[in-house]
Amino acid sequence: MTAPLLSVRDLAVTFHLRGGLLRPTRHLKAVNGVSFDIAPGETLAVVGESGSGKSTMARAVMRLVEPSAGSIHLDGDDITALRGEPLRRIRPKLQMVFQDPYSSLDPSMIIADVVGEPLTVHGVATGADRDERVQALLEQVGLGRYHMNRYPYEFSGGQRQRIAIARAIALQPKLLVLDEAVSALDVSTQNQILNLLEDLRRELGIAYLFISHDLGVVEHIADRVAVTYLGRIVEEGPTERIFAKPAHPYTEALLSAVPIPNPRIQRSRQRIVLPGDVPSPLAPPPGCPFHTRCPHVMDVCKTVMPAHTPMAGGGSAACYLHDPQATEGGRRAS
Amino acid sequence: MSDATASEFEQLGASVSARRRFLRRFMRQRTALFALGFLVLLALGAVFAPWVAPYDPLAQNLDRVLEAPSLAHWFGTDELGRDVLSRTLFAARISLLAAFQAVLIALVIGVPPGLIAGLAGGRTDNLIMRLTDALMSFPPLILAVAIVAALGPSLTNAMIAVGILLSPTFLRLMRGTAMAVAQETYVEAARSIGCTQSWIIMRHILPNVVSPLFVQISVFAGVAMLAEAGLSFLGLGAQPPDSSWGAMVGRGFRYISHSPSLIVFPGLAIAVTVLAFYVLGDGLRDSLGREIRREE
Residue B11 above 50 pLDDT? Predict the structure, then answer.
């Protein structure tokens, strides 16, 4: 096992929602004690429902929101507390593609300036040299030099996402954070972008932190998957194991919701429909955050958050069903 | 649908810059174009007044006072026998210059603190906005009269007053726009790239807040002109021998029963010019609006 490129330990992000005259300030724990590693060139997918804290996790790793606890190490360097100029200097290693390609490109800039901006602000290249590199980048993502003098509004969603990717790889980052990077695109465009990402990984050896709510997409691109629920990672492991033998009841439920492209199987299979909604992250339930909706809930789940238990086939799950001692204790209690 | 095909066509064909797109959309607006044409003509007439005007605006002819419009004097003559057409043309210089002064002062006072309030937020924002609220709580005309009384009656002083009165709107506009732009994903993207704070403000925020500013400038040029007319009518603005349209109406008012045409022409000039500024502002807003064309 090589040293991880990105190492996140016990990361927490808390938003303070300022109250008014009569309402107290409330604290929203968007990310609550999350740990994971990404090896060089590896793709880790983080999946979960909206509101599960995946995007906040991505922004915390990017140091776009302040972590309230935990640590983030990139390439051996602690970047948790970097600010200002030192933070700016590590940015080239760590780039991001945002969900909405319609708002992530400045509408007042031509494409050459959008894609060339990272090169300019880090003093990598200027003038004709920069334009040459921008052209190469555009060609790398399937666009051409004739796109350079156009404005973002002239492009379709898929093309804009290609532009955003060209900008993100301009500095040859080691880690690319993709926050729902294909979610806003239609299915055929999604596939093109996923293929592009696959090609780029092969050519450049970039590691991806791939945030998505779409397990179908994740199955094809990820080496490992982390499943989040209410700001916590409830299960994590190699993609094949997660999809073949999901350990956490929440992962099972998520997987059963992925449509199967075969009407006969799709109609006959059992779907696990969870009761109720995701609890408010302002008042997460005590113990395991999933216990309010879990079909296998035990007494112990309602009081203490289960620790991660290693699973056969790789990875781990935070569930008492897989923790032999706790299961006994739980049975005795119920 | 036609928008979609148009953008496909653009992708195949020549690139269209934002400026050309703006021009193309602006050209479609007949009324706004007409208003712009009128304002340009008016500005030319004002600049070249000494050559265009048929008479010296100050030359008195006491044999022919308070005449109705005629072939010799298209707009008639005033109480000193001066040619009203020539005086209206020369007064355009004062009126336009006054509007320009007031808007410039409002911009200088309003825009920087508005941007600071919108971008800094928190306590800075609170302080700036409370000061603005205090300024806005004065009755406008009383404040204008007070400023002119303190500084002495002159057109520039009157326009300083008007500029101060208009500045809170620019301030609020810039604060709101800057706040909205700072929330945009492309600003977050710029941070993720590693742009410095000043780079983000200069390259990403400023270029995206100027469009609504242009619209407001055009509308406020009209408002300032109207305010100047009001103050000059009261004798607080342009001082003799200079004359603005408002001052002309103010003087002509005394002879309204004998010679109503005296206030009709400068009054019409004010009304049409103010309307032209408003129409131009509307046209700018409609052709700068990004949302309309945003394809989903």
Answer: no
Q: Which residues contact B187 (CB under 8 A, 6 or more apart)?
A: B181, B200, B204, B205
Q: Is the pLDDT of residue B291 over 50?
A: no
Query: Does the pLDDT of residue B223 top 60, yes or no?
Result: yes
How far away is chain B from the Cα of A141, in angstroms, using its nearest Cα?
17
Question: What is the SS3 string spanning A179-221?
Answer: ECCCCCCCHHHHHHHHHHHHHHHHHHCCEEEEEECCHHHHHHH
Cα–Cα distance for residue pair A118/A259, rounded to 1 Å? 40
Q: Which long-range contacts (CB under 8 A, 24 or more apart) does A55-60 make?
A: A55/A99, A55/A179, A55/A180, A55/A211, A56/A13, A56/A30, A56/A31, A56/A231, A57/A11, A57/A13, A57/A31, A57/A211, A57/A228, A58/A96, A58/A177, A58/A179, A58/A209, A58/A211, A59/A179, A60/A11, A60/A13, A60/A31
- Cβ-based interface (< 8 Å): residues of A facing B: 62, 64, 88-89, 91-92, 95-96, 98, 100, 102-110, 117-118, 121-122, 146, 149-151, 153-156, 164, 167, 171
A331 pLDDT higher than 80: no
Number of CB pairs, chain A paired with chain B, less than 8 A apart: 83
Tell me which architecture the domain covering A6-333 has in CATH.
Answer: 3-Layer(aba) Sandwich (3.40)
**SS3 of A116, please?**
helix
Give me the mean pLDDT over the A266-276 stretch: 77
Domains and CATH numbers, chain B: 40-54+78-293 (1.10.3720.10)
pTM: 0.77
In single-letter form, the type of residue at position B141 comes to: L
User: In this predicted model, what pLDDT tens digit does every residue of B119-151 receive, in sequence order?
Assistant: 888 888 999 999 999 888 888 778 888 888 888
